[in-house]
């Protein structure tokens, strides 16, 4: 949400157009021909508030009594929706590039024996001020008391005259405004990109876990600490004298690993060995129907797939193959979430590791299907290693941890030039079994053939 508000701010600052995020509405509305910085900040404030209002009213208010899994899925859906809307609504020459009109001063300043730009120091000062204001707001005002009451017990809050809906709307609007202004201010430092900017939620969630999702002061301390460690890690990794870091390990991946370490340490220290009664009730998942006639359906659908692969055109065969691949990926979610009751957001990262591992095993002379089995074993071992530290946690904390792990795997392994080929990628060799080519690559309408 902060990423979208920042894009809209910089686009308005450049063109005077307000870009709307809702498909079906006009993409752009021209407001003023020559926007000023003050006008742009005011528009960003109003837009952030309205975005929080709409998201709460349309998505999270109906889900406030739903299981945690439903809210996580809704959050991911919103996450992906806003990513795609930004890519659709903002041209490559728009907000992502034309951000030269900085909000904070970027003059170099000598500080404690080093040189930094003034916006870094101003940001740190703003963090302290905003943290103090938020802590005072939620501790010493009736609004903060009402928020804590509604969060603890909605029914009890209603009996005392507190409306959970009004409290929820106000908090969502405030959170959306804060997120938008945060991304606007850090744009000169981190850049502005639909994919990478939205993933800043991972270190933000790590800092929130440091604060126990309840302390503004500890969250701010955690955020500043994580940011400093990430900067030191990057600076140390790019030094020529740093020889112990393998060449295949991306420096950006090392940065992505810092929040993961922070999350795992916090969860290891705070994770409860046994959940309390409230956690047991909060983890109750929606019932699922018991499948019937599994054997008959399996035989019928398998025959249908074979016939379809033999008779469909290339486009439909490709769609069917992709659907089957993602059906297999969905089975891992069934195991971890449906049977174990844990919310994991890392299965696709493990699948990516297995996919590139297959290529390396094949290049080493190991043929199909042994290379596939070994690659699956590698992903399994990796999953067990990263899963051991979070076995004591459940619910939202586990979702945060697995999301951070997925981002770290993408940065460390899937972003490695040696392991995945980097931006160029790698090609998998054609699988053969008993001399039969099982690959799907061909030309024209023969592509995605079954054999």
Helix content: 55-70%
Q: What's the count of strands?
A: 6
Compute the separation of the termini in Å: 46 Å
Strand proportion: under 5%
Side by side, the strands of the main sheet go 1-2
Low-confidence stretches: 93-98, 273-283
The geometry reads as: globular
Largest sheet: 2 strands, antiparallel
**Based on helices, strands and strand pairing, what is the structural class?**
mainly alpha
Name some characteristics of this structure.
mainly alpha, two-stranded antiparallel ribbon, 6 strands, 65% helix
Task: Summarize the entry for a quick read.
The chain is mainly alpha-helical. It has helices at 2-15, 37-60, 68-89, 118-140, 142-152, 154-159, 164-190, 194-198, 201-210, 216-237, 251-270, 277-282, 294-311, 314-339, 347-363, 370-387, 395-414, 417-420; strands at 17-19, 28-30, 108-111, 114-117, 432-433, 436-437.
